[in-house]
Amino acid sequence: MNTKVEQAVGSERIYLFDSTLRDGEQTPGARLNYDEKVEVARQLARLGADIIEAGFPVSSPGETNAVRSIAREIKGPTICALARALQGDIDIAWDAIKDAEKPRLHVFLGASDIHMKAKLKKEPHQILEQGVEAVKYARRFTDNIEYSPEDATRASEEFLYELIEAVIKAGASVINIPDTVGYAVPEEFGAMIRRLKENVPGLDKAMLSVHCHNDLGLAVANSLEAIKNGARQVECNINGIGERAGNASLEEIAVALRIRQNYFSYYTNLNFSEIYRTSRLVSKLTGIAVPSSKAVVGLNAFSHSSGIHQDGILKNRETYEIIDADLIGGSAAQMCLTARSGRHAVLDQLNKLGFSLNNQQLEIIYNHFVSLADKKKEVYPEDLEALVLDHLSATEPRYRLDYLQTVSGSKSVPAAVIRLIKQDESIIEEVAVGSGPIDAAYNAINKITGLNIGLEKYMINAVTQGRDALGEVQVNMSYQDRTITGRGSSTDIIEASVKAYLNGLNKLLKVNGNS
Ligand SMILES: [Zn+2]
Fold first, then answer.
1. Parallel, antiparallel, or unpaired for β 103-110 and 415-422?
2. C or N: which end of the chain has fewer Cβ atoms within 10 Å?
3. pTM of this structure
4. Distance from the alpha carbon of residue 183 to the mean position of ligand 1, in angstroms
5. Is there a contact between 451 and 370 (Cβ–Cβ < 8 Å)?
6. Ligand 1 centroid vs 233 CA: distance in angstroms?
């Protein structure tokens, strides 16, 4: 279904800059591996994000590789990489995105007094020079350059005028105003955007952008107010994830502009019917659950519990519902697969879910599907999705599960026997006790690896309804200074728990370069 909006005559286009893979990935515990990043980027392209900020390449070689693959593979959106206003950062960022169809360099440098003095230990005139030099340097590679004076909402406005004018003269084509700490309130922020437009020579030729954080719960409201006052690009993330309280939520901004087009005369090029799928994918891969009452994509956004409301909805949906679930692809056909479904039906369902797997991956998923369909009569799209996500995040595992047995009961000491296969195909078995069977199993794994892994959070969910539902476990684990999310699913919750722990362990070992 094509749900692109028919825009009213005279309405202006708003560009959606998605930073789920950069700012979103800075959410504690949300680290994505290489395959997961590329998968999210593919889905963002299907969604119709105008610009994808693929990452901050200087942060690690793994990040550079992921950004490079996204730049090479993803066609359509502009692919952007973040860099500090330093030549070394810009070199690495450019190297990662240079093969993109439409590459953009995004340079940032603190601009508020507290950032300049406390963090950068520099005078305003030095910051201005550094910003101008960085933009000039970036211009050697591309003319698509975005400049962000970090912490702009707490900066001196006179200084911003001077700085922005200078970086535009140096060649910046997009000026982004970040509310880095989520300090702004809508009316004040809108007025600031308007004053910038009025007072900065040359800004009318650049694209004006905003980047709002949600510390006061105002990120979406601030973004909308900025649009009304002249911003034409908004930086936002799927499900509103991001540093601290998160960033403005992409789906909330786009749907607000769409549903209230009688008020906002702006449109986006988003494929609205991909919103729900994108939200689910990001939530699953990052391990950050969408709150049930979250606007637009929350589980309860389209459910009605009050009798009066239910009655109204049945008579006319619009009595109590302003967004049709169909708009965001929330009620797409839920076709069940069974043990009798062939490869073709599974492939078809995978395509509908938005996964593009190669033959080898398809074969692996199909085999998992067959064994799941044996245990469970009906395999829902969510089950299939869970299988693919398990597989996607399990690239080159250091440890694989070979055998698991646990004992528990009201009168026995919980114990577990675990046998793991290492990458070199050697087999190690351990026995441990614990406060419950899952704790015992985790203790046995720790004995095998000899690592001191911390378990920060454990969550279990039924993927679908019914007694034979697939259980999906997410664990937040820490090792040294890193936190990571592991995920596993099975019809047996102890097995799902062990798979999640191993998934996280393999990610931790990969990130730490121990493997
Ligand atoms: Zn940010």
1. unpaired
2. N
3. 0.77
4. 12
5. no
6. 15
DSSP string covering 462-493: ESSSSTTPPEEEEEEEEETTEEEEEEEEESSH
What is residue 305's predicted lDDT score, i.e. its pLDDT? 61
89 C-alpha vs ligand 1 centroid, how far in Å? 18
First-last CA distance in the chain: 45
* CA 83 to centroid of ligand 1, rounded, Å: 13
H or E stretch covering 36: helix 34-47
Over residues 100-130, the pLDDT tens digits come to 999 999 999 999 999 999 999 999 999 999 9
What's the CA-to-centroid distance between 77 and ligand 1, angstroms? 20
Give the length of the chain: 515
CA of 26 from ligand 1 middle (Å) equals 9
Residue 158 pLDDT exceeds 90: yes
Answer yes or no: is pLDDT of 476 > 90.
no
CA 445–ligand 1 middle distance (angstroms): 37
Measured distance CA(501)–CA(507) in Å, rounded: 10
- DSSP state for residue 96 in the 8-state scheme: H
Round to whole Å and give the CA distance between 226 and 237. Answer: 17
Q: For the segment 482-491, what is each residue's pLDDT rounded down to a tens digit? A: 777 888 888 8
In whole angstroms, give the CA distance from residue 233 to residue 113: 26
Give 339-407 as a DSSP string. TT--HHHHHHHHHHTT----HHHHHHHHHHHHHHHHHSS-B-HHHHHHHHHHHHTTSS-SEEEEEEEEE
Distance in Å, CA 115 to ligand 1 centroid: 14
Compute, in angstroms, the gap from residue 235 CA to the centroid of ligand 1: 9
pLDDT at res. 515: 36
Asked if 297 contacts 277 with a C-beta cutoff of 8 angstroms, the reply is no
- What are the structure tokens assigned to 231, written together? 């911003």
State in Å: Cα 239 to ligand 1 middle: 14
Ligand 1 mean position to 31 CA, how many Å?
16
Cα–ligand 1 centroid distance for 439 (angstroms): 37
Question: Structure tokens of 195?
Answer: 């004053």
The tokens 């519902």 sit on which residue?
A: 321
The CB-based long-range contact list for 295-304 (8 Å cut-off, 24+ gap) reads 295/249, 295/252, 295/255, 296/249, 296/251, 296/252, 296/255, 296/323, 296/328, 297/239, 297/251, 297/328, 297/330, 301/330, 302/330, 302/331
Q: How far is the CA of 396 from the centre of ligand 1 (A)?
A: 32
Contacts of 352-360 spanning 24+ positions with Cβ under 8 A? 352/381, 353/277, 353/381, 353/384, 353/385, 353/388, 354/42, 354/43, 354/46, 354/274, 354/277, 354/281, 355/39, 355/388, 356/42, 357/388
The residue behind tokens 């799941």 is 372
